[in-house]
Design brief:
The complex is a heterodimer of chains A (about 160) and B (about 775). Chain A is an alpha+beta fold and about 160 residues long. Chain A has five helices and five strands, in the order ββαβββαααα. Chain A has two domains: about 80 residues, Ubiquitin-like (UB roll), CATH 3.10.20.30; about 70 residues, [2Fe-2S]-binding domain (DNA polymerase, domain 1, Orthogonal Bundle), CATH 1.10.150. Chain A has a five-stranded mixed β-sheet, with helices on both faces. The N and C termini of chain A lie far apart (about 40 Å). Chain B is globular, with a radius of gyration of 27 Å. Chain B has an eight-stranded mixed β-sheet with strand order 3-7-1-14-11-12-13-22, with helices on both faces. A five-stranded mixed β-sheet of chain B has the order 9-17-16-15-10. In chain B, helix 10 runs parallel beside helix 17 and helix 13 packs parallel to helix 14. Chain B has three domains: about 160 residues, Aldehyde oxidase/xanthine dehydrogenase, molybdopterin binding domain (Aldehyde Oxidoreductase, domain 4, 2-Layer Sandwich), CATH 3.30.365; about 170 residues, Aldehyde Oxidoreductase, domain 3 (Alpha-Beta Complex); about 325 residues, Aldehyde Oxidoreductase, domain 4 (2-Layer Sandwich). The chains are: A alpha+beta (about 160), B alpha+beta (about 775). The interface between A and B is large, with 52 and 54 residues.
Chain lengths: ~160, ~775
Amino acid sequence: MAKHTITLIINGQSEELLVPSNMTLLHVLRDQLGLTGTKNGCEAGECGACTVLVDGEPINSCLVLAVELEGREITTIEGLSSNGKLTPLQQAFADLNAVQCGYCTPGMLMAGTALLKRNPNPTAEEIQKALVGNLCRCTGYQRIIDAIMEASRNGGAQ
Amino acid sequence: MTITESGLIGKSVQRTDVIDKVTGCAVFVDDIQFGPNLLHSRLVRSPYPHALIKKIDTSKAEALPGVRAVVTGKDLTARLGLYLIDRPIFAYDRVRVYGEPVAGVVATSEDIAIEAVKLVEVEYEVLPAIYDPVESAQPDAPLIHPDLGSYSVVNFIFPEPGTNISEHFKIRKGDAEAAFAACEAVVEGRFRLPPIEHVPLETHTSVALCEKTGQVTLWATSQSPFAMRDMIAQSLGISHNKLRVIAPLVGGGFGGKAGVTMEACAVVMAQAVEGRPVKLRLTREEEFVGTSTRQSLISDIKVGCDKDGNLQAMELTYYFGGGAYNDYGVNIARAAGYSCTGPYDVPNVKADSLCVYTNTPVGSAMRGFGMPEIHWGLEQIMDRLAEEVGMDPVEFRHINCVQTDDEIVSGMKMNPIDLDACIDKVTKAIKWDIKEEPTAPNKKRGKGIAIMWKAPAMPPNPGSSAVVRFNEDATLQVEVGGQEIGQGAFTVAAQIAADVLGVPYEKVTVSTPIDTKYSPYEWQTVASRLTWSMGNAVKAAAEDARFQILETVADAWNEDIEDLTIKDGIVISFKSEREQPLNKMVIYGMPNDDFEGWKGGPVIGRGHFMPTYVTNLDPETGQGTRAVVHYTVGAQAVDLEVDLETGQLEVLNIASVYDVGRAINPDLIMTQIEGGAVHGMSSAYEAMIFNEDGVVINPSFVDYRIATIADIPRKIHGDYVETPIDDGPWGARGVGEHVMVQTAPAIANALYDAVGIRFSDLPLSADKIYMAMEEKESTQKD
């Protein structure tokens, strides 16, 4: 398998990487960089657990090859909070118990963050539409909707 | 209910794990980094549901560059199991289900392992397969386990060698036949449920390492690290102190990560490549095909009542499709047997609950364990009987539902509960008495109710233990062997310890991950038993530590223990009004008042709990003094509408109320109630689908749809009532599984109210509903 040298901007840091042609962003993050907050739920783009932001847009990192992302800005769950300060969305997920097993949580937070950036005051229906590709088996979703609305009142995606 | 003096019992404190989980710091098995020494593995799986293995040729696979080992079951004929030891680690003489592991391949990369799997040549002689549990239970059915009579089995499970019946539980109470003859109304029906999957977001993952000394370490996605260690150690002949199971946070379990799934395969593969860790991570497709499922059930139910609607008699036959191996599933049929009536007072009962081998995926524990299966039929037939005698379904349930101190179906005296209060709350929440208009002219609207009971289904004596250990600054570690699978068990453990010890909740940390080398024993994280059983153990450990602290202070001050208490981390004397912060004294002890010598030392509290009062049941009648520790009961009511043009259901409101005994953390209970309602709703639409060759044809999120964020009810009205029990901490009992038990029949009853059609088989798919409405309309036209 041919390997390629690429540069990705990951959570604000430039990373030079040597990646095989067929390696997905998900595996680069988890296996090469040890950024294991991004979860592998299906590797088929069906569950959203691996959602990250590429130039601010949410994508399933299991569906995109790393070599296609030269120079792009990637944000993962590890890049959301800084200096121990949670974003309003992370805080709302914690305050409202929108988390149970936590395996879908990073993907939910990334999809929610992207939504609040493009729509700072989403309705419940808009949240449902934006997160329909992010599966959760534990929570029943209502608290995830509530947390996104709570965050939108507390400063949105900041 | 009031909160305790410290304010912590009954308070919705923040989850211990939530900050880790919202920052991506929470560690699951697949997140642990093993470095370049890590090897990867894949399983070779059977393409047939039933066949003899004639020959396995691994030479081509072994010759592939990068392959480090190929293992089969050839030299590995010991079986494993929890209740019935019937399951090989790798099939060696016969495969009994599509997807059963027959070999494992270890390689330097996952890609090479995938290639090598294709090179393992297995010669099979295909046998006739049997999928239907009723057919399989017949005396002339082809045998799936001809050696059933030679398997080890616990003393409360009764297999029938020479048949496919792995467990036959009987209830013979009163005289059902005579009672039916005197009934005013009798209804009967057959109800079916397909197998469904747990569908955790995290697939089963194991990493095993076998050192050259023979020491084995297994990192596993596990709800039961101790039971897993016990089963694998016994099967492979490893002593318990040479097998260490480390179980980090679980990314969704629902019963699917109880017992042993494929973890023993990882251990066997690791033994073949000593000194190198081997990872076995199931793909999403394998998670659907190669792990356990909820068992299928065909239930035959007959029930009768007198003219006032009082239940008089029931006759029940439950055929659980246990799948290829019933090592765990036998106890599901048993649990369904001793709880066979559902939450009703019925004086005359004849019941047979069978677990039957079938050539389908292994049936095992899933949230509710036998109860969603039996309540599907029970709660619909109660509505039918109520209608037969002209009673409202709610009134019918009030008259017949189980009460505190009733002698229930197994002969046991019912523990304190208030099911009537649960019924009242749900009917009020969905405005039971008001017929509401549909939201659109092409829709019909209906309401339905269903009630439930469930006891923890387990051996009579599953133990819990806990250790409480202080640090120098009076922060403390709570050590448990129970697992955090999302339900909040660690949070409740921390709350209990903090409350008993009089320290702020924030000072308590639960030691993770669960590690059989360091963590105290816990049977399994199943049966909604942790708040109750592990909670009792943590309470006892904290009381032990508290006693040590107070004894030291009392000694040093020359006071009585009874005059001392701990508040906000400070020991206070009511008598002398002296104060001693826990800081330092919990490790270094205290000097005597005269400064001659010291008292105390490092404080370590220990506690355990094991129910000692559960009795065996008579094998012929199913009667005994105390079949189970206790029951939790609850009610759900559903308000839904059906789209007449598509058959699509939409749940508008669901009310869900359970009697939890005592709420330790109310908001965590609400998260279970809400999540369970959606899980229960989703389960009404789910089914594993097989083709005629026994192959699962929908093993993906696209083809096996679980509820998405767009599918949820418009409103979930969750609530609880508190009728304390005598054997739980502050009266608490479990509720995590119960919350989805009766959702499907509540939906079916509401569907009947909406369109006047009964559906006896799950799933409630839109096409099935649409076709039934079409048929009804055309019949009416004729």
